[in-house]
Amino acid sequence: MEIRLKNLSKIFIDKTKKETRAVDDFNINFASEKLTGLLGPSGCGKSTMLFLIAGLHEPTYGRIFFGDDDVTRLSPDKRGIGLVFQNYALYPHMTVKQNIMFPLENMQVSRKQALEETKKIAELVGIGTMLERKPAQLSGGQQQRVAIARALVKKPRVLLLDEPLSNLDARLRLQMREEIKRIQRETGITTIFVTHDQEEAMSISDEIVIMNFGKEMQKGTPQDIYLNPDNLFVAKFLGNPPINVFVGEIKKNHLYFQDKKIFKKKAPDGKYYVGIRPEDFRVATDEEGVVVSTDNMEVTGRDTTIHFMANDQRVRALVESDTIMGKKEVVLTVKEDRIHLFDMETELHLDNYLKLNEKEIEEAKELNRHLKELEEAHSQRKAREALASEEAEMEERRKARQAKREEKRAKRRAAKEKGDE
Ligand SMILES: Nc1ncnc2c1ncn2[C@@H]1O[C@H](COP(=O)(O)OP(=O)(O)OP(=O)(O)O)[C@@H](O)[C@H]1O
Ligand SMILES: [Mg+2]
After folding, report:
1. Contact present, 397 and 404 (Cβ < 8 Å)
2. What's the CA gap between 179 and 164, in Å, rounded?
3. What distance in angstroms lies between residue 27's CA and the mean position of ligand 1's atoms?
């Protein structure tokens, strides 16, 4: 069953009347029976989106459909959703079995049937042998499996997972990722998986939706959004090591960096943000390209990362180690279709930008200005918070020093008094 959002918005208004558009005019479909990753930086509105779909928040505008049903006004318990959060929130005094069975208690299900369902689900998530244990006797990963089983036991139409793995250590996360993917495939439940970890989203999702400041930035398969980012934000958000970005100029179908002709690239003349992923560089034999010294290299087995400076900016290129063996200098080049150009005012990928009409360009400019303002306000707030916490720390240390001095003085006084006696 597909989930459709129509003009969905959630605006929070705080005490000072300041508006936060946590979800801002979303029009998308979450594919039926697939796992969609909802990805974006902290505070971009991921949890708010899940809460809206779950019915725990009421939208400010817009509608939500499950298949053909309009569920916008439906209470959470009538929507047929299973929810899993970061903190597993199991009942500590109940056994695993009782925890999983709990959601069935208020339903018209016989005890026998409830037990059968519980056992089946417990097997599915891999905790079939632990039904009599209490949560405290389980590892973090096992507890999270119980939480997933509890969400699944009611046979929900939709499974909503909000950063379900972020309390687990790195190795367990990897393992649970695979497990969630398998469980989703076996049950075929339409699933939304929230994460701010791009690698997690890329590895687990059939499709990914990327958000920023409540806005949809792109939706597509992991491969598609990685290779064909719609805008500079998505290009920068995906990839580790990150994409290299610099300002370049196109003249007569060649890319120039600071008046130096570097690569062939067919595009209208003008200045652009240029994005090149580290792994898209190649060591070339011909003249056209960037000449770099191999002084600053980091060999990591089969691959080597070459670092070089372009103006004041560090650029990373990932090449196969044997292509540079024994060389002092190499020429780096990039396949033409791997050079991404972004319009500087809208920050849209040039391929998208060229399809827009004048009105759409104006709208895209406006949106980008709006996002830049939010980003500026966000980083100022962060800087203020950092400053405040630094000052608090200094004050703390000053107090500690003073307390120590007073303690010493008191000791000396006591010793002196003892001597006087
Ligand atoms: N109940 C609320 N009242 C006011 N503002 C809220 C409320 N809940 C969320 N917000 C704001 O809405 C924005 C989106 O928050 P949300 O929790 O959805 O982000 P998120 O993407 O889940 O972030 P994180 O990755 O940190 O969990 C934030 O700016 C947040 O401060
Ligand atoms: Mg969240």
Report:
1. no
2. 12
3. 20
CA dist., res. 418 & res. 421, Å (int)? 5
Given 2.30.29.30, 3.80.10.10, 2.40.50.140, 3.20.20.30, which CATH number is that of 241-355?
2.40.50.140
Which of 13, 44, 51, 60 to mutate for ligand 1's pocket (most ligand atoms within 8 Å of CB)? 44
The rounded Å distance from CA 45 to ligand 1 centre is 6
Question: Tens digits of per-residue pLDDT, 263-302?
Answer: 899 999 999 999 999 999 988 876 678 888 877 788 877 8
Which ligand 1 atom sits nearest the alpha carbon of residue 214? 14
SS3 248: strand
- Identity of residue 393: E
Residue whose CA is at the smallest distance from ligand 1 atom 24: 42
Residues at Cβ < 5 Å from ligand 2 ion: 47
Closest residue by Cα to residue 148 from 107, 106, 103, 110: 103
The residue extents of the domains of the chain are 3-234, 241-355, 359-421
pLDDT in tens, 310-367: 777 788 999 888 888 778 888 899 999 999 999 999 999 999 999 999 999 999 999 9
Main-chain phi, psi angles of 74, to 5 degrees: -80, 140
Which architecture does CATH list for 3-234? 3-Layer(aba) Sandwich (3.40)
